[in-house]
Amino acid sequence: xxxxxxxxxxxxxxxxxxxxxxxxxxxxxxxxxxxxxxxxxxxxxxxxxxxxxxxxxxxxxxxxxxxxxxxxxxxxxxxxxxxxxxxxxxxxxxxxxxxxxxxxxxxxx
Length: 109
Ligand code: HEC
Known about the structure:
Layout: H1 3-16, H2 25-34, E1 37-41, E2 44-49, H3 51-54, H4 57-61, H5 70-83, H6 90-105
Antiparallel strand pairs: 1-2
């Protein structure tokens, strides 16, 4: 392989590598706060609702929360994603779950 070709291969490898990494809590944070959905919530129509419209931080910290494992956390994020028609891809759901886990749930993975 020529020197130039091996540099190109190296660049390709390093730019593709992050895709195989674990979920990214930083981009999850952005997704979580910046997603906009249209939704009627208790009779009020929102064109710019997001996750925070229904969930304050305390919601994830209440003693009777439903999420008790990391797998359940991902399932609930996916549930709200589907029910609300948010349109996140599975990678986005993983990123948001990683963010919520870092901030609130703190499960071992
Ligand atoms: C219209 C209101 C609403 C919005 C907006 C909403 N959710 Fe939910 N979410 C709920 C309800 C209701 C539950 C409880 C479901 C249950 O108890 O079965 C829930 C539960 C959850 C839980 C589990 C909480 C726990 O620990 O018990 C997570 C995680 C979650 N939602 C994530 C999200 C994310 C991420 C978004 C943004 C896409 C979002 N939700 C937007 C209504 C909402």
